[in-house]
Amino acid sequence: MAKLKILHFPDSRLRQKCPKVEVFDTNLEKVVEDMLETMYAENGIGLAAIQVNIIKRIIVIDISPDRNEPLILINPEIQDKKNEIEFEEGCLSVPGFYEKVNRYNNITFKAQLPNGEFYTRDVDGLLAVCVQHEIDHLNGKLFVDYISSLKRDRIAKKIQKLEAEGKKFERKNVPYSI
Ligand code: GNR
Ligand code: NI
């Protein structure tokens, strides 16, 4: 297993629309293992492959308090969504910033497992929000795209400044993450 480096907004590589996974092989299994290791090491509740510069429709999620219930979503598609809510989000690619975003509280999604098998799930609350956030990543979209361009540009400048100073991003007190 290997921990991978996370790309930070405003890196243009986060803006790519990712193609579907077509080949379900041992390399895909390795990518999923490395993504899980990275998500757990960074205390995130989800991670999209594009965040670690892998341009494919691959997501890992774990919202369990004990960090032992990994979910894997390959080529996910939302089939149904209902009940709009406002949710305060963060992102490993936008470290240190949190903003309210409009999402759906209940979704039905379809996805594949690393062996290619299809499955469907109804999810709600934090898990539903996380799936929507991660699928946005696969389409080159970030939660900061839902806020004003003024705020978004300020966040970009702050992150670039911290990065230029070589500061490590701290992710303590992150909402909804362990
Ligand atoms: O760790 C994360 N926490 C989070 C909190 C609220 C809404 C979405 C998220 S996802 C985020 C990890 C991440 O950046 N995934 O892409
Ligand atoms: Ni994110």
**What's the alpha carbon Rg, rounded to whole Å?**
16 Å
Total strand segments:
5
Q: Which small molecules are bound? A: ligand GNR, nickel (II) ion
Tell me the number of helical segments per DSSP (H or I, 4 or more residues long).
Answer: 3
Mean pLDDT: 95
- Report, as a whole number of angstroms, the end-to-end distance: 21 Å
- Which range best describes the helical content: under 10%, 10-25%, 25-40%, 40-55%, 55-70% or over 70%? 25-40%
The rough form would be described as globular
What's the story with the biggest beta sheet?
A: 5 strands, antiparallel
Give unreliable regions as ranges: none
**Reading side by side through the largest sheet, how are the strands ordered?**
1-2-3-4-5
The helix/strand series, from N terminus to C terminus, equals HEEEEEHH
Q: Structural class, from secondary structure content? A: alpha+beta
Percentage beta strand: 25-35%
What can you see in these coordinates?
A hairpin with a 5-residue loop joins β4 and β5. By secondary structure, the chain is of the alpha+beta class. The protein contains three helices and five strands; from the N terminus they run αβββββαα. It is 26% helix and 26% strand. The chain is globular. It starts with 25 loop residues before the first helix and ends in a 14-residue tail after the last helix. Bound molecules: ligand GNR and nickel (II) ion. The site of ligand GNR has 19 residues, from β1 and α2.
